[in-house]
Amino acid sequence: MADTLPYGSWPSPLTPESVAQSSPRVDGARLVGDEVWWGESVPAEAGRVAVKRRRADGGVETVLPAPGNARSAVHEYGGGAWTASDDGELFYVEKTDQRVYALRPGGTARALTPVDDAVRHGGLRFEHGVLLAVRETHGDERIPTRAIVRIGTDAEGAGEILAAGSDFVAQPALSPDGRHLAWVAWNHPDMPWDATTIRVADLDSSVVRDLAGGDDRAPLQPVWMGDDELLYADDPSGRWNLYRHPLDDDAQAVAPADADTGGGLWVLGTRWFAATDDGRIVAVRTHGGDEVVEIAPSGIRALEVPSVSGTAVDDARGSRVLVSGTDGGGRSGLWLVDLDSGAVDLVTGGAGAWGDEWMPTALTLETEGPHGPVHAFAYAPTNPDVAAPTDERPPYVVLVHGGPTSQVGPAPSAKTAFFTSRGIGVLDVNYGGSTGYGREYRERLKGQWGVVDVDDVAAAASALADAGLADPARLAIAGGSAGGWTVLAAVTTTEVFSAGISRYGVGDARALAEDTHDFEARYLDGLIGPLPEAESVYVERSPLSHPERFRVPLLILQGTEDRVVPPSQAEAIRDALAAHGVPHAYVLYEGEGHGFRRAETVIDSLERELGFLGAVFGFETPGVTPLELD
């Protein structure tokens, strides 16, 4: 018989240590001959990205051993930090110096680019014998220059510029005959989900033409279907769908759907579809959750890939396709799909440290908010050994994703299960501005950051409480980066939440506009308004402009090396809380950037978050000391 214990105080096998080590994140994958190669984060090694391979005989070994770390710093968020040749040579960006290196398994790395502290590389692609990269060069000015370069693989050199002429470039693709280069380009103040252009250069004549794009269109990921035809995603209908575009003819839609094949191009390695040698297409379709489909002349069929969130189609060769993502049980994985046989082979991941009985199931919610429907996923407290008193409703943590143009799917993270197994529910909200529901939903946030996001998370939380699923007096809100902004705005402008947890959150929008890196330097033009014209709106919306409105306990977590939202923002929030006598705790993690990667940081921050919730909501937290608040 299950024990009866108050919500929040349930014993759980999900320790902070096990959460920190659970389901390493897959960071790109590639088919190399008969082998499968993939990148994998290693939390126990300060979050470094190793590259591993599964040989044809099934054995797994590390191609990039410690201390090597395949991490790009282009746009600060990086992505595309490694690739491989067809004959098994690894090319990667080393985090410590941002140079490109080549490495044969078991050999010694050799540098392909020179020492230059001003230069970063990312978005690596090895296509038809050519190594391509996005190169970012920093100078005396705040705005760096970017170009697509061809990097020689035989000797060290700076690389040959193939494409430039815009503020941003991404996703280079070389035609099979080597004559044409396609890429994605965009300029300030647009972000890559606002307006982009797909450009094609004739490398013999240097003639460049714009193939797709324009105002209110954001084409992504050009892929060659032959020497003279491109496949890409575009959203003239308001949903990212696929298009085939011969260079000498008009574009034609490919199997359009009321779903998105595409998303926010935050990192350079993101890929939503791939084409096989015989012209079949494997694509992700997203509407809240992800589905993987094959598009062929014979029709469209769903593939039995378990990934429902964060799904990427990493590579395709012959009839084999690599897909990575997270399944409905919250397990990250990489799957090898054979389109001919229908077989789906788990390459790595796909297993948790705990049984399925400990993992909560996503309840898809849609509620009406002040600005239209709001989408969310609720995870109820889940523990096979404990029941709650019948007269008690559970506390809930309302999670606010970052971006704010990001998205969460119906897949509980290990952190979500850490809370739900202890009797604390979790509500994950895709507020207006999130991707995965089309352009109209995404653009609900235009000019309304700090309004729509706050109203939507408050509406979702209130609907959960009104339905009797959550204790309205014990609703906490938690988020990082842009999600931290929403946390701080929500606790100062609504009465819904009784506590807040902000990880590297934004408190002063003007300071963010002045201090943040170039990729997001004009992001706030669309989210709030251009400066200086909209300065009064920045002041009014910023939580730090109204320190007297802070009223509920707050936990503030921050990394010392954060260049996106620097520690000065967190320290200003801490000082405002102290000045107004609001209970709070401030934790600064040495060596962490924008997002916590080190195992020891993940462990400590989980313990502090649980101890904070226990302290403010009045329940015991077995194994974790309640957090003392200043």
UniProtKB/TrEMBL annotation:
<dbReference type="GO" id="GO:0008236">
    <property type="term" value="F:serine-type peptidase activity"/>
</dbReference>
<dbReference type="GO" id="GO:0006508">
    <property type="term" value="P:proteolysis"/>
</dbReference>
<dbReference type="InterPro" id="IPR029058">
    <property type="entry name" value="AB_hydrolase_fold"/>
</dbReference>
<dbReference type="InterPro" id="IPR050585">
    <property type="entry name" value="Xaa-Pro_dipeptidyl-ppase/CocE"/>
</dbReference>
<feature type="region of interest" description="Disordered">
    <location>
        <begin position="1"/>
        <end position="26"/>
    </location>
</feature>
<feature type="domain" description="Peptidase S9 prolyl oligopeptidase catalytic">
    <location>
        <begin position="414"/>
        <end position="618"/>
    </location>
</feature>
<protein>
    <submittedName>
        <fullName>Peptidase S9</fullName>
    </submittedName>
</protein>
<dbReference type="Pfam" id="PF00326">
    <property type="entry name" value="Peptidase_S9"/>
</dbReference>
<dbReference type="InterPro" id="IPR011042">
    <property type="entry name" value="6-blade_b-propeller_TolB-like"/>
</dbReference>
<dbReference type="InterPro" id="IPR001375">
    <property type="entry name" value="Peptidase_S9_cat"/>
</dbReference>
